Amino acid sequence: VQLVESGGGSVQAGDSLTLSCVASGRAFRTYSMGWFRQAPGKEREFVGTISRSGDRSTFADSVKGRFSISRDNVNNTVSLQMNSLKAEDTAVYYCAAQTDPDSYWWLASSYDYWGQGTQVTVSP
């Protein structure tokens, strides 16, 4: 499975940005999908996850109410909509696929496939 993110860039605080992730293969609908981010000098942290069918999503407290996730199981894509961006949202953002739906969705180590990441920079 290959995951390719796109949509990163440099924005001002308060702006919005949408990240997209396209997956290869036919098993996309069987994966829970997650978004993580990693800022310089920090560990990779959980941002949000969406269930296989797309009916449930969960977010880190730091982005709750500002970020949303959607997926399209026909076109093998998952998107992260980021609103009201803050300087502290600056990081490399990664999408990830989890094959075991019973795994801990907040743990990066429980995800099986990762994209290469896309940079998001938010200026104050």
Describe the structure.
The protein has 124 residues and is an all-beta fold. It contains no helices and 11 strands. A hairpin with a 4-residue loop joins strand 7 and strand 8.
List the helices and strands and how they pair.
Elements: E1 3-6, E2 9-12, E3 17-23, E4 32-38, E5 45-50, E6 57-59, E7 67-72, E8 77-82, E9 91-98, E10 113-114, E11 118-123
Tell me briefly what this model is.
By secondary structure, the chain is an all-beta fold. Helices cover 0% and strands 48% of the residues.
Overall residue-averaged pLDDT value:
96
Q: How far apart lie the N and C ends?
A: 37 Å
Residues in helices, as a percent range: under 10%
Number of helices: 0
| Percentage of residues in strands | over 45%
Gyration radius over CA: 13 Å
- Unreliable stretches (pLDDT < 50, length at least 5) are none
Q: What is the succession of H and E elements?
A: EEEEEEEEEEE
Shape annotation: globular
Major sheet characteristics: 7 strands, mixed
Which terms would index this structure?
mainly beta; single chain; globular; seven-stranded mixed β-sheet; 0% helix; four-stranded antiparallel β-sheet; 124 residues
